Batch of 2 targets.
Target 1
Amino acid sequence: LALVFGTAVAFAPIPRITWEHREVGLVQFHEPGIYNYSALLMSQDEDTLYVGAREAVFALRAMDISRKQHEVYWKVSEDKKARCAEKGKSKQTECLNYIRVLQPLSATTLYVCGTNAFQPTCDHLDLASFKFLGKNEDGKGRCPFDPAHSYTSVMVDGELYSGTSYNFLGSEPIISRNSSHSPLRTEYAIPWLNEPSFVFSDVIRRSPEEGEDDRVYFFFTEAAVEYEFVFKLMVPRVARVCRGDQGGLRTLQKKWTSFLKARLTCSRPDSGLVFNVLQDVFVLRAPGLKEPVFYALFTPQLNNVGLSAVCVYNLSAVEAVFSGGKYMQSATVEQSHTKWVRYNGPVPTPRPGAGRRFVYAGSNSGVVQAPLAFCEKHSSCADCVLARDPYCAWSPATAACVALHQAEGPHRGWIQEMSGDASLCPDKVKESYRQHFFKHGGTAELRCALKSNLARVVWKFQNGVLKAESPKYGLMGRKNLLIFNLSEGDSGVYQCLSEERVRNKTVSQVVAKHLLEVKVVPRTSATPTLQ
Amino acid sequence: LALVFGTAVAFAPIPRITWEHREVGLVQFHEPGIYNYSALLMSQDEDTLYVGAREAVFALRAMDISRKQHEVYWKVSEDKKARCAEKGKSKQTECLNYIRVLQPLSATTLYVCGTNAFQPTCDHLDLASFKFLGKNEDGKGRCPFDPAHSYTSVMVDGELYSGTSYNFLGSEPIISRNSSHSPLRTEYAIPWLNEPSFVFSDVIRRSPEEGEDDRVYFFFTEAAVEYEFVFKLMVPRVARVCRGDQGGLRTLQKKWTSFLKARLTCSRPDSGLVFNVLQDVFVLRAPGLKEPVFYALFTPQLNNVGLSAVCVYNLSAVEAVFSGGKYMQSATVEQSHTKWVRYNGPVPTPRPGAGRRFVYAGSNSGVVQAPLAFCEKHSSCADCVLARDPYCAWSPATAACVALHQAEGPHRGWIQEMSGDASLCPDKVKESYRQHFFKHGGTAELRCALKSNLARVVWKFQNGVLKAESPKYGLMGRKNLLIFNLSEGDSGVYQCLSEERVRNKTVSQVVAKHLLEVKVVPRTSATPTLQ
């Protein structure tokens, strides 16, 4: 089998701007010796970010996560570690306590579960003292045994809803409600869950006037039962249970009676693109938004060479499938009424996440805090608009690219076009230029600080376009102009233009302007042979 | 749906060498006003290439296709064209005669079929006079009605075996034998053929001692009946019929009784790569080869962003599926014993296609003739070996990269390593260098004619590696070295090295050697202020 890769580069949408780490200076948190920062929880007042890592929980200042407020350690006893190792697990990596559940239990307590050397255990963390209360609850069904297995959980009115595996081997998947008065779970059978990989869960509250029950949604990828191809096919799913579910009778005691699941579709039929592996989900709720919206990040299972996609689902579209689609007992869900919305389409007002000011990401080595956008780094109106960043707009009054959630006062006259149409931008003539003096016969290098990866550099001399690759001119680093063998005729104004195609329109901007003056060094040669 | 493309570029194997058209000077053929050069047939003696285009057939010299020997035109009558247009087809494009079948009928006759304005017709072409004999045979089942539909055919002992569509709409696929005494065909039913796209067909002869019948193989892609996914899935197939098939009894009269088909598998499970759309097939037969080998070119149907693959099947592996695999009546073919051979693995002796000296390709606008390899363009042993071209080897005696099929005499000592291991190459010290004189204060550009897209350029000065992007040095076109503001200290030997990683080994070659001498121009300034 020989592989040939042809037009991939042509197809690939290159990110318009690449920020280097030193340019943006992100805030980081890392505690020496502590790894696997996998559970992040924001406090209700958004002042504190709780971080669950391997054998530790931290409280960090949300505005600056490098400032640690509290920490507490939860280590596995040597005894437990030894028993775990006896079962063939690694003492150094697996037989430790990976914090997987970090949920608010009350205003003063967090509910925390860890893998605890393949004996999942839960405890209550008192936020005032930042100490565990030593509850030592069995975490089976709430937290995986194996740190390598998938998990998700959400706390609803003091009851933990979770999706994970229920046994040591990780072979028995479960979606359950851990409740003292009404615990419920899925049956261990393929039609319920078939090798699921849990990604996300959340509760959607219903207002009392809707007359409907609160619902908990689970997002996961599982092995398809309705499809077949050369390899085992994966299917992304959304499952729903009702908070008021009290379980069934006889064999259905303590089993969900409200459990439904449906396929999430994310594909582009015209290009044969299928995204069937779910990677992450975010629920957007905003005061002005009619209903919650699910943003889901996917990758393809087949022929995935770096592709990913974001598909967006309205809650009502998902609900329509559950109420109007065929049940999962029938293999096909072709009658799905799921409506797709483009991620880069018009943005709702007020803009998403206007009360979120940072993005936090946990990794094996630490936690990173990044602002939502780098608006101020776009120095021209065209750059600000071409960034197509929903958080940024051009303010003609201040002649700056401003972050919408940071700006105060009226937004009048601000320019933002998600289509990238920069024609509304005021024509700006770059008046300032840099002056250079060079000696006759030398080489000049004129700089052009172009940021967009998608733009083409055009150099002009006295308004005529230069052919950059010629005996006279050269390009350094694809941007800067070299002028060889300078003579008086090379004196004059050089302009560097950035030309960028956006939806069949070319946006042209002057990035740099240089005034070059070549000075003749009069000389009298002492060696006539070289004259 | 928003798409993001991440690591594709990193994944993509870039072709090692890009030849520009002017560098290789391919031979071309194009007749003004004639388009769609889609049928190519090489004469038995390999002297003549027959080309079927739209409304014309040409005989070209195989050694130089720009030299036309004969031509004959076969146009659609105005009457037929009008009737075709009445049925809603385009008079300018569809209602013409596209030559689709071009097969040898006898030593002096070709069998030619064309779409003939949606009334497929066949005729005999006399090679001596290069005139049609006016047979005007019904071409239904031998040639498609629609020039946009797929087709394949092979002549076996005067009987045409073909795969195409049988009706005006193109909805009835057929694999048939057009024979006066025993015509046979597939049934029009999904288990036989399900929306096939025909790609290739050929006969495999059996020697009498084998005691087996000659067989005709058909290659196509069709809609899967055994698989299901978000979109309609395609499956590449190989089908087989026997030459001695005389059809069945009762309802199977004039139907194949020997028709079998199997799935062609071409995938890489570890990366989730599935290539299920067949694009082309070539049968390699060589005197020293134990059995014919099928080379098949595939693309993926899903998430295809420029990927393609070549899979290779031994005839015996295909036969093993037909004799030992489950029949197509059962949907699964998981018991397939198909053995895969890597395309870039060891090459059989004598090398494939040693009697083929050119590759011919037809397109809408003309025919192109390209040599099998450009061996002589590799100037060093390392380049010759790194090209990993099965047609090229390094001859240390003549210090040249030679084409194996053109070389005469013994091949002793020739170096060829399909792994790209160039360690067998003799160490060659590049003694020759180019001498340059530059003036003090000027800029020097030193050339480095590097051909490999995978190599890294390293410049050395007096055996020390230079940092190319610095105030003193620059790179032009990623290869040539620029030295600014020359002074006497810059005099010396500059070497351009090409460094290429091949299977965890770095092959380093000196590509260019320059001797630079900076001459001081003694001057006496007449303007003291500038001194």
Note: Residues 1-11, 328-355, 524-531 of chain A have pLDDT under 50 and may be disordered.
Target 2
Amino acid sequence: MKKIKVSNNVIRRMPRYLRKLEELEAQGIARVSSSELGNLLGLTPSQIRQDFSCFGEFGQQGYGYNVSALKEEIAKILGTDRGYSAVLIGVGNIGRALMDNFCFSAWGCNLLCAFDVNKDIIGGQINGIPIKSMDELPAFLAENKVDLAVLAVPKEFALSVTDALTENGIEAIWNFTNVDIAEPDSPLIVENLHFSDSLLALSYYISEKKDEDAARAARMERQKAVK
Amino acid sequence: MKKIKVSNNVIRRMPRYLRKLEELEAQGIARVSSSELGNLLGLTPSQIRQDFSCFGEFGQQGYGYNVSALKEEIAKILGTDRGYSAVLIGVGNIGRALMDNFCFSAWGCNLLCAFDVNKDIIGGQINGIPIKSMDELPAFLAENKVDLAVLAVPKEFALSVTDALTENGIEAIWNFTNVDIAEPDSPLIVENLHFSDSLLALSYYISEKKDEDAARAARMERQKAVK
């Protein structure tokens, strides 16, 4: 189906489309035009049509999109129908939050098992997911089809655990450690959730707004002074 | 200093530059060229020069960048020297993980206080940060300069808590709820950490690689059959 290598920016928008379409479907809305979808997401209709055209033809000119069909199509593009399996490494606060509250299965991903070094929790389970010892990781990865690992270990173990994972055949990592775990040319697929990058972007946008507000206030002061 | 409205993509790269420069500084490296920095980050030198040019002149042609000076400059652009203050709403797993492990102060942000509805933890503290009742939120926001709120409440409370925050003067939210809390045209500054969007992007890249691998294998099969 995919006709061209799709840009990262387009890929990043696909999950947003999916979430919005799920919302619309839940509201009982059957059809949506690219301009309606654009209004909801703060994108132009042509942007949306262009994004979808990377993956083939979805809509019919003048009729808009069938919400459910488009949702299914995007979910498929994102691979949610492929039955990926995951393991989670590191059952600290973040690992625990993911096991407790994050619905992996809603996104087509099956979280099989978690691993940790803490003897107090090894052998237990959270939300039905067993917690095993890190010593058992190689055998587990040899015996099970595992498509990705969730890395939620403390910073200082990020690189050594990454090595252990790749040596045992893991090709994709969802990285919560805020450490760059792969060189740019590495074949390892890494998706980073760098919390600090996100906070710094927010800090930038706050600063930008404060500067704009200050500039506006200064302008108004000057105008008052002139009068 | 800022000469033009800077694109979102550029803003998103600035924290990555900052992290890499901190790493280089820690390694005792004093100067770095745009091509060296590019190699480390998987970006072209011209991309890097272009990004920096949005904010003025940093390097000297042929001499590269002074690592520490560039780091300071980028930190300033990102607003880490402005002393922003935050409150955190929702001391569940994610909230707790942030209070315990995320070093707000390293990014120039002062986490003043957390709020929750759970009587068992109200009055206590985590990592020196007090936990107060949600009932105390309006008074706290009235009495303290608070620049942003970290939203880590369960999904179903995301919108009502957002309303409570904006009604009490909060203009920026770091959103961990996986709910879209603002319309596209809202003046509220929202930075989302949508875990599921990130997992879906990873799922896409895994699928892309599996498809490429399968296509390559099929090609080789055909070549073998021809021989």
Note: Chain A touches chain B through 64 residues (CB under 8 Å).
